[in-house]
Design goal:
Blueprint lengths: L3 E2 L2 E2 H13 L8 H28 L15 H22 L4 H18 L2 H4 L3 H32 L5
Antiparallel strand pairs: 1-2
Helix pairs in contact: 2-3, 2-6, 3-4, 4-6
Length: 163
């Protein structure tokens, strides 16, 4: 009969301990990297919210059906359908922390900023939206600078050819 430790036989427990000790241990993410990942996930939630708003408008669920696709002027049709596709794709990319997520978000945000700043007579003025996108972009750039500086410091301290 085999001895049982906790919920598994002793032989299996030794095998599991050996496997854990043999596993590759990667470096733990720094606080800056963890906060950056959290920031990207929050940006993904915001992007998904924007996407849901565009889809609700285009399908007639918001504004009492006044913003349905078939009732929109051509400029609004082009812009709103592009944003209804770009924002969910950006949300997925941001949530998965892949490199193309911020790029797609930047395209969508630049489109919205251009809509409200370059063509205010067509799309109206929405300063809060422009400021929101600007704030997200600024925080993103600050995180990237902080990560760059942190990685340069780590590279200097880890060098094996240092005198």
């Amino acid at each position: 009969m085999t001895a049982v430790t906790g919920f598994m036989p002793a032989g299996l427990a030794l095998t599991v301990r050996a496997m854990v000790a043999d596993s590759a241990k990667g470096p733990r993410p720094s606080l800056t990297e963890t906060l950056f990942a959290l920031f990207l996930r929050l940006a993904a939630i915001v992007s998904l919210w924007f996407a849901l708003q565009y889809w609700a408008m285009l399908t007639g669920f918001s504004f009492g059906g006044q913003g349905r696709f078939d009732l929109l002027p051509p400029a609004w049709k082009a812009a709103y359908t592009a944003l209804a596709v770009l924002f969910p794709v950006a949300a997925v990319g941001l949530w998965l922390l892949v490199s193309w997520g911020p790029v797609i978000w930047l395209i969508a945000a630049a489109t919205e900023i251009a809509m409200h700043e370059v063509y205010p007579s067509t799309f109206g003025v929405n300063r809060l939206l422009v400021l929101t996108h600007g704030a997200i972009a600024l925080v993103f750039v600050l995180f990237r600078i902080a990560l760059f500086v942190q990685r340069r410091r780590q590279a200097r301290t880890v060098r094996t050819d240092s005198p």
